[in-house]
Amino acid sequence: MAGFDVVKWFGGVADGHLEGSPAFTRNWLMLGYQLQRLKVRYVPDKGISPSFAEAYCLFMDSVVGAQADLAHAAVVSIFTPCEIFHAMGVRPVTAEAIGAIAGGAQAESGLIAHAEGAGIPQTYCSYHKILMGLAESGVLQRPGFLACTSPACDANNLTFRALGQRWGMPHTYIDVPTEVSRDSVAYVADQLREMQTAAEDAFHTRVVPEELQACVLRSDQTDQALLRSLPLRRDRYLANTMTTDMMLMLDTHLCLGTERAEALARHSLADLQAAPTYDGLRLVWAHVMPFYLDALGDHLNVTQEAQVVACDMTFDHLPPEGGGLFSPDEPYEYMAERLVRNCFNGPAERRVTTLRRLADATDADGVVVFCHWGCKQTAGAAQLIRSGLEDAGYPVLVLDGDGVDRENTSVGQTSTRFAAFLELLQSRRAGGAA
Questions:
Q1: Are 22 and 139 contacting, i.e. CB atoms less than 8 angstroms apart?
Q2: Which residue of 8, 76, 135, 378 is surrounded by the most CB atoms within 10 Å?
Q3: CA–CA separation, 409 vs 187, rounded Å?
Q4: 243-269 per-residue burial string, b: 16 or more CB within 10 A, e: under 16
Q5: pLDDT value of position 433
Q6: C-beta of residue 176 within 8 angstroms of C-beta of residue 339
Q7: Global pTM?
Q8: Interatomic CA distance for residues 289 and 246, integer angstroms
Q9: pLDDT of residue 409
C-alpha cells in the first residue's frame, strides 16, 4: 500500500493492546525488537561506516537480550558502572535504552500516556515515563536487580524507588559527591562494593576478582581509543546518523567493560583513520539526540553538510590533565572516580568545561544544547552553558524538544531554528558577519 508506514502501524498495535493485554504487548514488542535486531545486523543502513553499524548491532544485542531475560538482567541508570554486572555475566539495561528502543518502534505514546494516567507527572523525563509505563502496565516484568546513581537527574532515584515498590524489591542507590577528592572517590567505591554484594546475593553468584579487573582494564582501553579518535573527528567523514550516534553513546555506558565495546572503540578509531576527508560543519552536541526527527536528520544523517563530531553524553568523563587519581589496577576506585568526575555530576561549569574541551579537540564550528523534556538539569544549565561557550568563541544553539516522544516536539520551529543556525555557521566560515 502506497505510503503505508509499517513502523507506525507496529507501534499502534502495541498501543492498542497495552491496557488489556500486557502479555500480548510484551510479545509483540519483543517480536519487533528481534526483527530489528536481525535487520541492523544483516541489512544495515546505507552509507554508514562499519563501526557505526557495529554500534547499532551491539545496542540491539544488549538491550533486546536483557529484555528477553529480565530475571537475569539489571535495570540501572545511565551512569551506573556496569563492569560489576558484566563480570557476573548479567546484562544491564537503562531507562534511556529501554525508552529509545520503544521509541524506535513508535510505541512510546501509549506507554507515556499510561504512566501519566498512573500518576507520573507530565513534566517527568520521557525516557523514565516510558520505563514507568512499561512497568505499571505489566509489560515489563520484574528484573533481577535495580540500581541507580545520583547523576545525572532527580528522576533516577524517584523512578527506581517507584519501580522497587511496584515490583516489591529493593534498589541500590549510589550517592555521588560533587567534590573531586580521594575521600569522595573512596566513599563511592565503598558503595560500589556494597552494590556488588547485593547483586551477588540477588543473582546467587559471585564476582571473580580477576574478571572484574579484566572488565575495568577493558573499560580503560575503550575510553583511551575513543579519546584518540577526537582529533580525527575534525577533518574525517564520520558517515553516521543521529540514531547510530545515540546507539554509540548508549553502548559506551551499557557495554563498557566488555570485549565487544573495546573492539567497537578500536574499530571506530580505525574507520576514522581510513575515512575520507571532511570539510562540512562540525557540531558538538550536548545531551541526548532526537534520533527520530527528520527535520534534523536531513542535515546530519550521512551527509557532507554537517555532522555531530562529539557528544557530552559519550565523552562524559574526560580525564584531567596529568591523569586521574586512580588507575584500573584499583577497579572500584577507578569506577568511582569516573562517577565523581562525570560532567553531569556537580556544577554546570563541568558541562561547559567538557563541551569546550570537545569543541577544541574537534575544531567544532558550533555547539547544540538539546534541552530534553523533563531534564531540569540541562534546562537549568542551558544559559550558563551558552554564555560559557560563547565567551570561548563558539556559537551555541539551545533547542527545546524531546529525545524520544514524537508528540512533544515542535518540528517546524526546530527545523527553522536549526537550519538558521547552520546558515550562521556557514556564514562565519565564509568570513561573513558573526
A1: yes
A2: 76
A3: 40
A4: bbbbbbbbbbbbbbbbebbbbbbbbbb
A5: 46
A6: yes
A7: 0.94
A8: 6
A9: 85
Helix (H, G, I), strand (E, B) or coil at 93: strand
**Sequence-separated (6 or more) residues with CB below 8 Å from residue 367:** 283, 284, 285, 286, 355, 359, 385, 389, 394, 395, 396, 397
Q: Which helix (H) or strand (E) holds 147?
A: strand 145-149
Q: How deeply is 393 buried, as exposed, middle or buried, from its count of CB atoms within 10 A (0-12, 13-18, 19+)?
A: exposed
- Kindly tell me the number of DSSP H helices and DSSP E strands found in the chain: 17, 8
Q: Take residue 266 and report the three cell numbers written for it.
A: 578500536
Centre a 10 Å sphere on the Cβ of residue 37 and count the other Cβ atoms it contains: 20
Q: Could you give the CA distance from residue 377 to residue 407 in angstroms, rounded to a whole number?
A: 22
**Regions of the chain with pLDDT less than 50:** 1-2, 433-434
> Rounded to the nearest 5 degrees, what angle is found at the Cα of 14, between the Cα atoms of 9 and 20?
140
What is the model's pLDDT at position 1?
Answer: 43
As a whole number of angstroms, the distance between CA 148 and CA 274 comes to: 39
Q: Where are the domains of the chain?
A: 6-429
Grid cell locating 213: 579487573
Closest by alpha carbon to 419, among 327, 306, 284, 325? 306
Amino acid at 29: L
308: helix, coil or strand?
A: strand
Q: For residues 424 and 365, what is the distance between their CA atoms, to the nearest angstrom?
A: 10
Q: Which three cell numbers stand for residue 128?
A: 523514565
Using an 8 Å Cβ cutoff, are 110 and 18 in contact?
A: yes
d(C-alpha 300, C-alpha 8), whole Å? 23
CA nearest to 414, candidates 258, 299, 255: 299
Cell numbers at 207, concatenated: 564476582
